[in-house]
Amino acid sequence: MLFTQLTVTNKSLEGYHMKGNVIVGQSGGPTAAINSSLAGVFRTAIDRGAPKVYGMLHGIEGLLNEKYIDLSEHIQTDLDVELLKRTPAAYLGSCRYKLPEIHENIESYEKIFEILDKLNIECFIYIGGNDSMDTIKKLSDYAIIKGYPTKFVGVPKTIDNDLALTDHTPGYGSAAKYIGTSTKEIIQDSSALVYSKGLVTIIEVMGRNAGWLTGSAALSEGEDCEGPDLIYLPEVAFDIEDFLERVKNLLKKKSFVVAAVSEGIRLEDGRYVCELTDGVEFVDAFGHKQLTGTANYLARRLAQEIGCKTRSIELSSLQRAASHLASRIDILEAFQVGGAAVKAADEGDTGEMVILKRISDDPYQCTTELRNVHKVSNVEKTVPRDWINKDGTYVTEEFISYVRPLIQGDVSPVMVDGIPRYLYHKKNN
Q1: DSSP codes joined into one string, 111-160
Q2: Cα–Cα distance between 224 and 239 in angstroms, integer?
Q3: C-alpha Rg value of the chain to the nearest Å
Q4: Taking CA 377 as the corner, what is the angle to CA 373 and CA 383, rounded to the nearest 5 degrees?
Q5: How do residues 311-360 score in pLDDT, each as one tens digit?
Q6: Class of domain 11-170+323-378+408-417
Q7: For residues 330 and 410, what is the distance between their CA atoms, to the nearest angstrom?
Q8: Catalytic annotation on 160?
Q9: Which of 247, 249, 155 has the alpha carbon at shortest distance from 201?
């Protein structure tokens, strides 16, 4: 066998039969683990006897256009399930669609529920982050108001790790593993190069308001690596002049400097550092500005004022797409929360999100529980201030102890001709 099987089959459910069908969608930015949650939803729904498991193509936006598939036609074997777990991006296609408030556009809700009725949907499962939980909240509220029996449950997903009430979110562990590894490789590369005025490398990491991803650059530190010299999170106001001075002083002591910065770091006046650059401004349906160019701006400032060699590196989509470096813990937990969502909906829960509750760090143990989606949607969890050092230039040991268990273990890809094989189906966009 070319891979380690990760499936846990619940034999106690044999003979159990759900009355209605299940539909599942994916929303927001993809992760290396989002499809493992989809696999968990599918596997658990089948094990509990669901007649059909439908997949929305491009989330709730696709459903409004009646775009969906019967997942049983695409996931037919245990190997397919295992391939799905190892497949990056959103297998069903994602979206960033803001469902209007009920009173603003009741026609959209009427259409959605007409489709759900037609498909005999008992359980509606949505895999996503803050904005996706907002969708679950609105749909479950409408169902309760109108007396529809359909149950709505959210499955947490985001590399940003900014969902409230859950210890962490599936997708974060794999992204943190990739960032820690990449930072270590960049440091190793930088150490081999010598420039007369030094080398400064700025690594730009995703994170609008929460620095969980950027902080994971500290995981590179170990017996064989000193780790980055500086780490800047959006939770602390960024002082450009102080940053320049710190880099100057570091270059007096060493030949190279590596700094990790969140794309969302802000000045004291609230402006994003990336807004100091010239670029096209893109705003999505939820009012989120596209943040890019932070590392490039800081690298140019350093080159102008110090005259040193600089590099800016945007990890960009690789943070969420690098399934070859996925964390085994992350993939297993993603599968677990997907299954827990189906179980909850089938047993009558609605308007809930599955959360991960940490029991212990050593040995690492985590279980699932439910939380009311009203307390989760549109609430961001940021890095505690006491997990960032006093100067705001690094994370503390408490941060590292929190994230390290989440990156443990590897997932062997299924290799074909030297390249990982994924589960694929042609989507009609």
Answers
A1: HHHHHHHHTTEEEEEEEESHHHHHHHHHHHHHHHHHT---EEEEEE--TT
A2: 31
A3: 22
A4: 115
A5: 999 999 999 999 999 999 999 999 999 999 999 999 999 999 999 999 99
A6: alpha beta
A7: 10
A8: yes
A9: 247
Across the strands, what pairs with 275? Answer: none
Q: In 225-327, where does DSSP find H-type helix?
A: 240-251, 294-306, 318-321
| CA-based nearest residue to 182, from 325, 75, 50, 280 | 325
The two domains 11-170+323-378+408-417 and 172-321 share their CATH topology (first three levels equal) = yes
Which residue is it, tokens 């599942």?
24
Pairing of strands 199-205, 256-262: parallel
Which fold does the domain 172-321 belong to in CATH?
Rossmann fold (3.40.50)
CA angle 20-37-120, nearest 5°? 15
Half-sphere exposure of 342 (CA within 13 A, CB side): 31
Per-residue pLDDT band for 274 (boundaries 50, 70, 90) equals confident
- Three-state SS at 272: strand
Amino acid, res. 313: I
Out of 134, 160, 330, 346, pick the active-site residue.
160
The token duo for 337 is 């929360």
CA–CA separation, 280 and 291 (whole Å):
10
Question: Averaged over 251-255, what is the pLDDT?
Answer: 95
Helix H or strand E encompassing 314: strand 309-314
Contact 328, 410 (CB under 8 A): yes
In the chain, domain spans: 11-170+323-378+408-417, 172-321
What tokens appear for 416 in the block?
């074909």
List all residues 6 or more positions away from 195 whose beta carbon is below 8 Å from its beta carbon: 255, 308, 309
Q: What is the widest separation between alpha-carbon atoms in the chain?
A: 73
Q: How far apart are CA 301 and CA 320, in angstroms?
A: 29
Q: How confident is the model at residue 8 (pLDDT cuts 50, 70, 90)?
A: very low
What pTM does this model have? 0.92
CA proximity to 425, closest of 31, 30, 68: 68
Q: Are 364 and 214 in contact (CB under 8 A)?
A: no
